[in-house]
Amino acid sequence: EIHIKEPIEKEVNPRLLPGELLLCEASTVYKYIQEDGSNRGTYGKLVCTNFKISFLDDDSASDDNEPQFKNKVVGENDITLQCVDQIYGVYDEKKKLLTGQLRKYPEKLIIYCKDLRVFNFCLRFTKEEEVKRIVSGIVHHSQTPKLLKRLFLFSYASAAPNNTDGRNQTVMFETLEDWRDELERTKGNVKYKAVTTNEGYRVSEKLPLYFVVPICISEESILKYEGRGIPIWCWSCHNGAALLKMSAFPKEQDDSTSQMQKAFLDGIYKTISKPPYELLKMDDLSSSLPSLQDIQTAYTRFKQLFLIDNSTDFWATDVKWFSLLESTNWLEIIRRVLKKAIEVAECLEVQHTNVLLIEESATDLCCVISSLVQVMMDSYSRTKSGFQSLIQKEWVIGGHCFLDRCNHLHKSEKEEAPVFLLLLNCVWQLVQQYPPAFEFTETYLTVLSDSLYVPIFSTFFFNSQHQRDTNKSGESLKTQSGPFRFLTVWDWSVQFDPKAQAFLNNPLYAEKPKPDKSQRKTTRFKHQRQLSLPLTQAKPSTKRGFFREETDHLIKNILGKRIGKFINSSDEPPNNFREFYDSWHSKPVDYHGLLLPRIDGPEIRVWSQRYLRWIPEAQLHGGGTIATAAKILDLMEEVQSLQVKVDEEHSQAVSGDVHSVPMLRNSARLSSLFPFALLQRQSVKPALPTSTWKDLEDEDDLVKRDDECVDLSGDML
């Protein structure tokens, strides 16, 4: 059965943002509905601007059937140029990757997005000239290297009115006062000081204008090696122990330079390590955690599991889910990163020891570990404003190279690595294990990951504070008000109206006073194995790759112990770690105290909302976390209306400014894809005897068993 909407006759024009220009367009483009391979779809116009690729059909002109969770900047049929991952053309039923100049133009266009959407466009009914323009335009503007000033960020900032929401409570860490306030909040101002040595970026362009160092560090020391070899403060624990990070010296140096640097480091260590009063543990993350290249390789494999072209592909991979998931090693990397954060927390909390994280630039894995430790140990970082301030402090001002790691300019794939996405995956593990401890939801984390590719915010589009400051003057742009101000992603009102923003806030957040500790048991949910590796899969892989420290001796030790899933990167015995880990998990949870993630076996799971939200076959009708949220929000709405009535009875009626929550009536009509996608038609296993199903037909009649196969995607959520 083929459902085809006739080509639209009325003109549908794209909604353009300030500074957005239409570059090319093609009419009579047919967009397939990614569902069951039946060629169902709709006709429309495909356009490319300097901001996005957009498909416009006759529904685009009406506001009637708008989704409840609508993004005001990027629509459901919009793809920002930075969100395009790969583009394939189909020639005589064969897929070919499209890059650079094209000699022949395809009859079908497949666009894979970094947020894991897949768009299929048929160009057979489009005029040849329009096909050439739109295909070459899309490939050129989304895949070829570009200059920084060519990003839409600058066009938008120069054309958009500067009326940002002033109620943003996020600490931006752009002033000396912000750093001093943070020192005071964490009681770190006794041993540490905020310095102005880098004003005018005279020390280094990689360092922020202001940062915090131990009181005993002199200005001359900071200036000597452009900030390298200097312990920079991240956070102080309640017992006075501090988390520090340091940019290491290059390893390949001549002997004399190396000796001088070693002497310099020895002097620095002596000033901050004074046993038995001040203990210091150093941890070189470049040797104890996977490399950036390993992380990139693992994620590239992992995301392929979710870039599904059609229903047949989904069911073909579904039966091999466990082995495919394990072979990516992505979950193992998340486990190792969480384990490292627990080790650091143990040093700070139990041993009262300062921890110095060392990395070549101190702006990648240092950011991941320091952020995770603060989320685990500081309840302020688990509030929405606190988490946003943490990202500002450790990542944006801390100098993480977002431009290079996200490859926004398509300059070099060698520098690309999903480091920030790795952090969000780790934080999600904590959010789904301890929901009442977080003021924000998994939807918030998903939206934040999407915002990495929306170039109207400066937050994730610079490599350093220096790069942003030197490019915000707008000399080449005709701005009437002089230097323009970029938008920050933390102003959520730019992307969502208040009703949609309610999905970002956790209605079950356990605010102080602390909840009754006996409640811990009720928050432990059953683990859905289809989104995690089985316990037997947690053994270290025998393949060479991420685990460079593996030896035969280590493998024998690991396989003989219950903790076989941990890859011990340090030379120290794991006794302290295991004792700390088991001891904490044997006690009730204090949602405002220390939180340790569970990392055994299948506890590490796939972030289902982010990775499965566009796959109709993986949905649960009327189920998933959204069904629970629907009931909770209905109850909240009822309680609020009762509260208003009570207040009115006592002549203390509120002014009507009741905090709005989204209406989620009839939750059975929703599915687990909500709020990102609407309810899709129920998917069934293909009747076609594909080779995969042929192989399985004689094994326990697996094909016909609903509980093991048809509903596997449901269990996955």
From TrEMBL:
GO terms for biological process: phosphatidylinositol dephosphorylation. SUPFAM superfamilies: (Phosphotyrosine protein) phosphatases II (SSF52799), PH domain-like (SSF50729). The keyword Magnesium does not apply. Keywords: Cytoplasm, Sarcoplasmic reticulum. Residues 173-611 form the Myotubularin phosphatase domain. Belongs to the protein-tyrosine phosphatase family. Non-receptor class myotubularin subfamily. This is Myotubularin-related protein 12. It comes from Daphoenositta chrysoptera. The lineage of its organism: Eukaryota, Metazoa, Chordata, Craniata, Vertebrata. The gene is Mtmr12.
